[in-house]
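This part of the workshop introduces the protein records we will be handling. An example says more than a description, so a record of this kind follows:
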Amino acid sequence: MDQTTAPPPVIHVAVFRQAGRWVAQCVEVNIAVSAAQRDDLLRVLTKRIQGQILLDARSGVAPLSRLGPANPRYRTMLEGATRLDTLTVPEPLKARLLKLIRRLDWPSPTLELAAVGG
């Protein structure tokens, strides 16, 4: 895939509390993680996405192509949600994820997080 012609994928993420834990649910791909602290969510989510990309690469398929979208209720949850500007991918994880993506010649995804309730 030519990175100059393909736009980077945008993965919208709903962030909410459920059963006393923070949850991050991706909308375009059905990936969800949870953590006791909201500040840990992005690290856990980035590692999960990195692991899926690596698994897909080893299987010879396009990154995240085997995962369908999440339940449509999560996209509905994002309507009117408050966008979070404070969460960023931690630099060491971002560097590893970007290195893996470059090796696969795939544009780096953009994670757009939004707080839903809580």
Remarks:
- The first strand starts at residue 10 and ends at 18.
- The mean pLDDT is 77.
- The two ends are 39 Å apart (CA to CA).
